[in-house]
Amino acid sequence: MTIGGFGYAGKVLRVDLGSGICRVEPLEERLALEYIGGRGFNMRRLWEMVPPSMSPDSPDNPLIFGVGPLDGTLFPGASRFNVSGLSPHTGILGDSNAGGFFGPELKYAGFDQVIVTGKSSSPVYLFIKDGAAEICPASHLWGKDIPETDRMVREEIRDNRVQIAVAGPAAEMGVTMAGIFVNLVRAAARTGMGALMASKNLKAVAVRGTAPVAVRDPGAFSHLIGELERDIYNHNDYQPRGWLGTTRLVGALNAYGALATRHYKTGRFESAADVSGETLARKHKVKSKACQSCPIPCSRYFRIQTGDHKGLGSEGPEFEGLAGFTSRVGNANLELGLHAVDLCNRYGMDVIGVSECVSFAMECFEKGILTASDLDGLDMRWGSPTGILEMIRKIAHREGVGDVFALGVKKAAQRIGKGSEDLAMHVKGLEFFQADPRGLKGYALGLAVASRGGDHLRSEPSFEFTGDRKEGLRRYGAEGAALRLSYEGKGRLVKHFEELCALSDSLDACKNTIVNMEILPFGRAASLLRAATGLGFDESVVEQACERTVNLERAFIVLRGIRRKDDTLPKRFLEEPLPADSGPSAGSVVELDDMLDQYYLARGWDLATGIPTIETLRRLGLDDAAEKMPR
User: Fold this and answer.
1) Among 154, 177, 444, 504, whose CB has the most other CB atoms within 10 angstroms?
2) CB atoms within 10 A of CB 52
3) Sign of the C-alpha dihedral, residues 278, 281, 287, 290?
4) Does pLDDT of 567 surpass 70?
């Protein structure tokens, strides 16, 4: 049975760039009830379309855009989209998520999902408008950066309301840290989806729609939205999130002694106050900005008025970019850090991956593993302005030493050797965030088991910051679940938050509210989905859909060789305690094995291998996955 008309647009667009054929097909009700939308939809398509033998550089590797059933409605923060494929960066699951205005526009244009296969013989862009699609020539756009491409496509279409997803020049060069950017700086940055897009000679996807998104029961839906908004406005986090967004984490993590500093050599940065979100807001913020339909304006527009970087203005950055090019690389100059983030955005690269490569190179230089001649003469001492900015440019262009890092830190370390492999901060090939996992044990477990690789956004177990022992015992069977330096209860904690993240990504709504503020438990989500779509969602259907998505992702990477041995962290976090200057986190390491046992037991996966059991997969209706699992 197919669906459409309420919540869901009810249509899927398939585009074959090799033949130039675009066709529209209906969305199945079964897919909606089993996977909800967005990330769930995309994961199911990948499972069906990508055999274990496929290479990421195959033209048959699909590039899939998906949105959720609440995109384009009044739901606060339902403005995101997922883009997925077999990752050219890690060789396993590729999936990324971004906000802004592109996701709702795709729904207004009449589609829940766009599946792109094949490779064009020359550069093209895809223009989707009101239920139809056109493949347009884009040779004149090739080589252009993100802002220039956005401007040129907008002028060509002659409609300033068009929403445009762009692959930048780094993607064209095959830099696997390249993402897909919308609204200039909103980045679906992780796992190399920009590189996959450019490998198809697809420069951009432009979307314009004029159809409204209807809901099945407007009265009930409006009432539920009103309750949610009241809960958001009354939440203790509302004001700080609205003023500072994620940039507040620079100061917060520094106080905990868990801020990534000089490539994780310590958890405290002596100049954190100079590069904090508070300082950014005080010195350079012009106004707050929010994604479509969101009551929390957690982003900002900034402009630098004086100094060496005078005139630089942009939206952002998020915490990852801000800390990535300040504390992580030992840079105390806020404006230099903002310039570095801006360069990554213009070239279309992931700030997490690139900041890891820069800080890794700096530590290798400090230890004598890399010399000045290895680094094209760059000054790679901690905080070096030329080292930071020139390395970013070289990576984007794959010039000189930049070519060594263009495929990410794992492959760079393999190429460099000399023991540098132990200094490469990644899990399963994906570089990870700007917090030290030795000071956040739930996050450490989440990083180790995440289906994309080293990824905090697959779980975000922020409950461990609450310190609420009683609630930890009630919810997860252990007081330590609420304590960031405890290992107790972290298996159940991470499992629960992974499923909340799957809910957020499948609805394509913001994790600020659903995950961090916990305003949308599964039962409440079911009520909203019933009111929006009229379909038979209840609490168990929603929760099981999220659990199903997580397990199908695990099955997908198991078929690509991932086992328990791969659910690990870099040696530094397992063996080297945080130093004394890391304050309350000093002396901490990650004792991973016990947490892995907890997690596999909670998930119903084999303790020795980390493979989902046949019983677990069949309970979730994943019989086709159960048949393919190694025995």
Assistant:
1) 177
2) 11
3) negative
4) yes
Task: Record the tokens describing residue 195, joined without a space.
Answer: 């590189």
pLDDT at 440: 98
Q: Count the alpha carbons within 13 Å of 445 in the hemisphere toward its beta carbon.
A: 32
Count CA atoms within 13 Å of residue 108 on its CB side: 17
The CA-CA-CA angle for residues 393, 394, 400, to 5°, reads 165
Inter-residue contact 344 to 338 (CB < 8 Å): no
According to DSSP, the β-strands at 11-16 and 113-117 are parallel
Contacts (Cβ under 8 Å, ≥6 apart) of 235: 517, 519
- CB of 314 closer than 8 Å to CB of 342: yes
Cβ atoms of residues 37 and 137 within 8 Å: no
- For the full predicted model, state whether its pTM sits above 0.90: yes
| Region of 400 on the Ramachandran plot (φ > 0 left; ψ -120 to 50 alpha; else beta) | left
Q: Give the integer Cα–Cα distance in Å for 276 and 323.
A: 8
**Residue 5 structure tokens:** 């008309």
pLDDT at 1 > cutoff 90:
no
Q: What are the DSSP calls for 541-590, one per residue?
A: HHHHHHHHHHHHHHHHHHTTT--GGGS---HHHHHSPPPGGGGGGTT---
Is pLDDT above 90 for 2? no
Residue pLDDT, tens place only, 296-343:
999 999 999 999 999 999 999 999 999 999 999 999 999 999 999 999
What pLDDT digit, counting tens, does each position of 30-54 carry? 999 999 999 999 999 999 999 999 9
Q: State phi, psi for 303 to the nearest 5 degrees.
A: -145, 135
**Closest C-alpha to 493, from 509, 519, 525, 471:** 471
Tokens of 171: 């993607």
